[in-house]
Write a structure and sequence with these properties.
Belongs to the TRAFAC class OBG-HflX-like GTPase superfamily. OBG GTPase family. The protein is built from ten helices and 18 strands. It is α/β, with parallel strands linked by helices. It folds into three domains: about 160 residues, GTP1/OBG domain (Spo0b-associated Gtp-binding Protein, Chain: A, Distorted Sandwich), CATH 2.70.210.12; about 170 residues, P-loop containing nucleotide triphosphate hydrolases (Rossmann fold, 3-Layer(aba) Sandwich); about 80 residues, GMP Synthetase, Chain A, domain 3 (2-Layer Sandwich), CATH 3.30.300.350. The strands form four sheets. Strands 10-11-9-12-13-14 form a six-stranded mixed sheet, sandwiched between helices. Strands 3-1-8-5-6 form a five-stranded mixed sheet, with no helix packed on it. The relative contact order is 0.11.
């Protein structure tokens, strides 16, 4: 079975604890602290693999864990970092928080590799805590804890053009004629279960086309495999709507188009408004003695609405070339900007919500310096890369939403004063 969804649990590595030890040598009986720092925990990284086209690898294994950092050692030895875990996914995979459904990462376009869960920082050894008044510190910083998250992986096929239509209208036959794809073709009354991708080459250029599995009424409400099918059309720029113009199974092609468009509209209004062209298929089965010309009826109904109708036969190839030329013209008129789902969920946000304590105090030796400490601050700094734009933006949000800025203002901080947090220093400006 084609696997386009999977729910897995990912866990970053815990930071190694800092070490408590003291220098002990033959002629240095009372040496100072020399406990080393713990290693950083491994990250959980997602990476695009060009050779994959399904999420099948994630249907049988649910838990993925990065390595923990090693504890620091004596003689200032630094613990080794935990191994990262790299999860390979096909291009077009969207990673979402399983609980809220919000997007964490969209693995498409230029985003080929992304750290989704950061490993905890290693704790500092007791060598860092020696002061003139505390020369024998028996305390080392513990490593930052691991982060764990249940995520939903969802593959949204990347194609320029999507084929839609009821089952058995000839989409697979059409795709096999115009591309190098080789879908299974038979007179099925049930639908294809997986999207088939193919490349179309025409004299005026090429494009990628996907056979979106057949829809049924109620698909937008999840009837049948509705949502599983509809998600694949979200990235397409042009829609080819294939209908059985000959009504070989007694269906009304005009009604079919309205029904499918209604499902698209109910699922996503923006998708329904994208350029569309109607491929009136099976014209080789239309007989001249019919009372009403079905092609003319389709043209009269939809061409005044700006939707062109092309009579074709996917079996014989009649009319297909003209249709593909028109589709390429529609694509050329559409913006080439790829559809990328923006990040909505930041795993670090959970730190803001945690009710861990912190303290804000003015430095007794310098009234323009304010020291912010506590487990909440340690934890936040352990997961945040302040050198990156996103990391620093999160840090600013953390200070505001965590009530830290408010406490600094209560303590009397002024513009230009310094904020000190476990080795980091920042100038304060309101």
């Amino acid at each position: 079975m084609f696997a386009d969804r999977a729910t897995i649990i990912i866990r970053s590595g815990k930071g190694g604890d800092g070490h408590v030890s003291f220098r002990r040598e033959k002629y240095v009986p009372d040496g100072g602290p020399d406990g080393g720092d713990g290693g950083n925990g491994g990250d959980v990284i997602f990476e695009i693999d060009e050779g994959q086209n399904t999420l099948g690898d994630y249907r049988h294994k649910r838990k993925y864990k990065a390595g923990d950092g090693e504890e620091g050692g004596k003689k200032r030895c630094h613990g080794s970092n935990g191994n990262d875990v790299v999860l390979k996914v096909p291009e077009g995979t969207v990673i979402m928080d399983a609980q809220s459904g919000k997007v964490i990462a969209d693995m498409s376009g230029e985003n080929r590799r992304q750290v989704v869960l950061k490993g905890g920082h290693g704790g500092k050894g007791n060598q860092h805590y020696a002061t003139p008044t505390m020369q024998v510190p028996k305390y080392a910083q513990p490593g930052q804890p691991a982060q764990e998250l249940e995520v939903l992986l969802e593959l949204k096929v990347i194609a320029d053009v999507g084929l839609v239509g009821f089952p058995n209208v000839g989409k697979s036959t059409f795709l096999s004629r115009v591309t190098n794809a080789r879908p299974k073709i038979a007179n099925y009354h049930f639908t294809t279960l997986s999207p088939n991708l193919g490349v179309v080459d025409t004299e005026n250029g090429g494009f990628i086309i996907a056979d979106i599995p057949g829809l049924i009424e109620g698909a937008s409400e999840g009837v049948g495999l509705g949502h599983e099918f509809l998600r694949h059309i979200e990235r397409t720029r042009v829609i080819i709507h294939i209908v059985d113009a000959a009504s070989t199974e007694g269906r009304d092609p005009v009604e079919d188009i309205y029904k499918i468009n209604k499902e698209l509209e109910a699922y996503n209004q923006e998708i329904a408004s994208r350029p569309q062209v109607i491929a009136a298929n099976k014209i080789d089965c239309i007989y001249n003695n019919e009372e009403e010309d079905p092609i003319q009826r389709l043209k009269q109904e939809f061409e005044p609405k700006g939707i062109k109708v092309y009579p074709i036969s996917a079996v014989t190839g009649q009319g297909v070339r003209e249709l593909l030329f028109h589709v390429k013209e529609l694509l050329d008129a559409c913006p080439r900007k790829s559809i990328v789902f923006e990040q909505e969920f930041f795993p670090e946000d959970a730190l803001v919500a945690e009710n861990l304590p912190f303290t804000v105090e003015a430095d007794p030796e310098d009234s323009s310096v304010f020291i912010v400490e506590g487990p909440r601050i340690e934890k936040m700094l352990g997961y945040t890369n302040l050198d990156s734009e996103k990391g620093f933006a999160f840090f600013q949000k953390f200070l505001k939403e965590g009530g830290i800025l408010e406490e600094l203002e209560k303590a009397g901080i002024q513009d230009g004063d310094t904020v000190r947090m476990y080795g980091f220093e920042f100038d304060y400006y309101k």
